Fold:
Amino acid sequence: MKNPYALGFWCALVALVLLSATYFYGIMLAHQIDKALAFLDSAVALIAVMSIAVVAWASVQNQRIKKRQLEQGKTLVLIWDTKVALRRVETVFDRYFWGSYWQPGRTFQEVMGELTGTPLEKSLDTLKKQCVALDRQVADDGRHWLNNARELADVATAMARERYQLDVCDPRAEVTGGAVINRDFEVLVYTWTARLKSFDHQLDEIEVQYS
Structure:
């Protein structure tokens, strides 16, 4: 029902009609007061039953609305927390690949492109945990948001390998070989940017849906 007051309006209208009918019927039966009183009692009983039914219905609807609002608020908090985690990943990613953090041969794990123990890995793990919570709350297929986070992690791992190859590549190597590596890295950068924007856009859409 689009108008929550429609039922109350019609109940009040019916009650008014019944009371008016009782009044005029009582006047018509002025010499039969017992019948008029019996009719009045029946009308009052009917109005009382209708009032109880309306109050019960309104109470149930109110409980449903409160429950829905609580779930909606919980979902919005999870969405906002996921957005914060995603922004953290984006910031750490920029520092890791374009800032001063990256150094060729820094650790064996970085050489292998595993990102183990790096701030980027930790921020991606935080994002995954947040996505698991969001999936439990809203996703129909169970792992939609977690899959988004895993895709970002896969691209970051691949970029770490390519970045290391670029940094340790012998400058005397053939131009063709270097061009292939550069082109592969550019594709990964584009893929990362596209998936990051898609992830952010999906979060914006679901935020509007639950707002």
Residues 33-98 form the longest helix (66 residues). Residues 170-181 have pLDDT under 50 and may be disordered.
